[in-house]
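User: Please predict the structure of the protein below. I'd like the answer in structure-token form so I can feed it into my own downstream comparison script.

Assistant: Understood. Taking the following sequence of 200 residues as input:
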Amino acid sequence: MQKGQKSELTKETILNKSFELFYENGFKTTSVDRIMEAAKLTKGAFYYHYKSKGELGLAVISMKVQRRVHNGMIVPLYQNGSALEILENTFLNRMKSFALYEKKHGCPMNNLINEIADHEVVYQVALRKIIDEWRSALSGLITRGQEEGVIVQSISPNAVAVYLISAFEGIRGIRKLYDDDQIIDDYISGLRLYIEHIRK
């Protein structure tokens, strides 16, 4: 393996292990030493790629968390077809796709918002960027649905987008408190009722 490839592989290993440990144990309580021990790498390797844990945290947000939200919740919104069906299917399919591990640990983005977004503006900006992209895509889909005549005109696309994101992120956090999926089933029932409420 060439030196450049090995360096990139090391950086990716640090990133992946950091995401995993931040997700399971929290950002604040996960030390650089713990990350490097889990990654089976030296501390020197860490500081070769990252100046600080804070810089690593931003990399995890932009390279791991943002990618998850983009691929799971934003890309599906740009499919062809009925805007209302795309809206419902995107949220339902994503919710149903979570493994037990993810149900127990909640949403990585929401966890970070709750843990560190009120401490550093730089984290706020990075996390807000994800929310803004998601909100914009949702608002655009709802507007398209109104133009297609399948979603009522009386609603604000941006308000609906914020509501749907908040409900989705909220249930991801609440599910951590329970040992079964009844709370998710209730969320899904409520989502379907809401979708029917905005159907034209």
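That's the full token string. The first helix runs from residue 3 to 25.
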